[in-house]
Amino acid sequence: MPWQRSTDDADAIETAVDESPSPEMTRKSAYTESKGRPTPKRREAERKRGPVAPPPQNRSEARARRKELRSTMSKEDRAQARAKQRDLRNEMRERRLAGDEEYLLPKDKGPVRRYARDLVDARRNFAGLFTPVALVFIVLVYGLPKLSGLVSIALLVFVLLVVADSVYLGRMVNRKVRERFPESTDGGFRLGWYAAARGLQMRRLRVPKPQVSHGEAG
User: Fold this and answer.
1) pTM for the full predicted model
2) Among 127, 116, 95, CA closest to 212
3) What pLDDT, on the 0 to 100 scale, is given for residue 152?
4) Is-contact 207 146, C-beta < 8 A?
5) First-to-last CA distance in the chain?
6) Residues of the chain above pLDDT 70, percent
7) CA distance 93 to 208
8) CA dist., res. 5 & res. 191, Å (int)
9) Where are the domains of the chain?
């Protein structure tokens, strides 16, 4: 009869049901098998590695930690650590000499301080002769005791000239910095002293190294 299914149709339906994937097989193909435990959080993982020692509070504590660390290292490891530290110090020194902002001391950082250094380095400062000339005067005082009075007077005059040149340099730097950076709070006596101290140094000994030539406009 039309409303009755034949035996062949019933067998086909049962075969299709048997061959369809089971829920368990579908879940395995769609999902990765669980590890059986929850993934540890970051804090739990860090806690398992052990507590992290706080940074040293002073130099003596840092020195004690370095000594304790060296006691657990072999001779070859200590040599490699010293070589690595030496290379790191040399690299930091080279970058500081080159004026790399990241490696400069706090007193040298910032566009204002960089501009002040350029002003000092572009000028032939009389104060820069202080160190070599003072050494010459000292030698003359001890080498020519009969002329020590005249040498002392000449040294005093030279020191007064150095002071006058340093004062002029500090004021000049402050004036030009106010013109270039009108909103900057870095100025006054501190900036003038910074410029004068750099002017007192011999050009080849200045840190960072001069980035401008003599006579270059600031």
Assistant:
1) 0.63
2) 116
3) 87
4) no
5) 109
6) 74
7) 9
8) 104
9) 67-97, 108-205
